[in-house]
């Protein structure tokens, strides 16, 4: 029954709305106005994301240095794009990718809520008095023309103009729609007095915002209805409170697909709106008295309800800031404690088979909002995969867990010591437990990246993808090598036992070598030279290993079957070394100089 209801409710709702629009042209006009307004916000958001290759996002990154700076950025950004939802979603994406810190994200959300007041003032002062349809015409014409250009800046400008034009046209249609209700029926007759009315209209405002996914759209509807006399002033104030509460829904939906870092932004947005709404309802009469006093000081007429509503909206958000700002630093610490960042498996921390199954730590749906955040979390996840790959390769070759602390000479001695049975881990099981899930998450994430990418971003994504594939190939080669190693490591034939010791030592040396890749993070020529040197070392070792095998065959120390197995395992070891080297070279190419120091410890090897 529940499934049937779930399948029927949306078609039934659409049919009901169609019937209302057929019954009343005013309802049809109003619905078209809301649709154009919401569509305009979407185009405006898209335009600002495309403009100057992500100018808004770079500006948001600047907000990470302090609370007051991020607060200012939140106010100005929301005033520019007329969407606190976009700024909040970008905050979730940027915090989840580590591009801003928690304090910057909290300031961004608080500022975004204050920035929403600009829309109320714009509409109250001019939006319902000027001919918005006439103003929208040139913007729509130029917007459509420029949006078809391939150049990012021109396309972004065109989308922004198109969005503003659609906003203006939507406002005009909403105004016309509410005016058309006159004589048909008066919504003002259904006003509810007292606290019951306040709570009812708070609920209506919240539901309208959740449905339209835009508190601005709800605010414009409220102002249009107020101008047309279709809603009472007291009820309109409650609708404003509800609109702010309903705006938390989008952030909460985005938080579901984010990591804990991104969820801190959604939690901040929810806490701010709940605290502000609760405080405003408790002090509603005092806030209304403050609005009347400010209106008297400004010389407004007693019936200037639209401007009074704009004053209330601003006063409401300033009131919320006054409640929240003194607790901002405590809120940041509390959020970081309640929603901690995920931690990778510690390297050298014991048996991998005893660790919980590993999945992606950094990639998340909210990062898909913008190319910068998608690339950032992809890099972080490939670095995570690189750490896991080193650990699994080391375990597959039965190398010491504290390999990073050994010198090459100490490694030479360690690989010649007996390996206890309890320390021999199954590479196939480790691959399934710690590698396959993370790589599957990376592949799935890449399939959902549908944001517009610049050529250099496309290349960066290709580099990260290739690096991940190389790392997985190294682990698979180590799996194949272990199938013989597990049987021959305790061989009674000295030649076989020594050969596998040498192969294990080469694997350990390769892992130790990876510590130095961050030193050439920003030097393409040095990276290329490292790759060439590594390939040359592989050739020298392979030639020496094969010469020794031939000598042992001639001396009858090995038979043909054993020599063939060793040649195959030599091939697997060379693949391990080559793919590890190439994977880390791709990672080093994406690591900036200021990140190298932070990541140095992360490259301590299993």
Q: Would you write up a description of this structure?
A:
With about 600 residues, the chain is mainly alpha-helical. It has two domains: about 25-340, no CATH class; about 350-605, Methane Monooxygenase Hydroxylase, Chain G, domain 1 (Up-down Bundle), CATH 1.20.58. Helix content is about 75%, strand content about 0%. The protein is built from 25 helices and no strands.
Task: Summarize the structure in short.
It is built from 25 helices and no strands.
Considering the chains and any ligands shown, give keywords for the structure:
606 residues, Methane Monooxygenase Hydroxylase, Chain G, domain 1, 25 helices, 75% helix, disordered C terminus
Number of strands: 0
* Low-pLDDT runs: 591-606
**Gyration radius, rounded:** 32 Å
Give the number of helices: 25
* Biggest sheet details: none
Taken together, the total number of domains comes to: 2
The percent range for strand residues is under 5%
Helix-strand blueprint:
Layout: H1 2-23, H2 25-50, H3 55-62, H4 67-81, H5 84-96, H6 102-115, H7 117-127, H8 132-147, H9 152-180, H10 194-212, H11 215-227, H12 233-246, H13 248-256, H14 260-282, H15 284-297, H16 305-324, H17 328-338, H18 371-396, H19 408-414, H20 427-447, H21 455-488, H22 494-513, H23 524-554, H24 560-590, H25 593-599
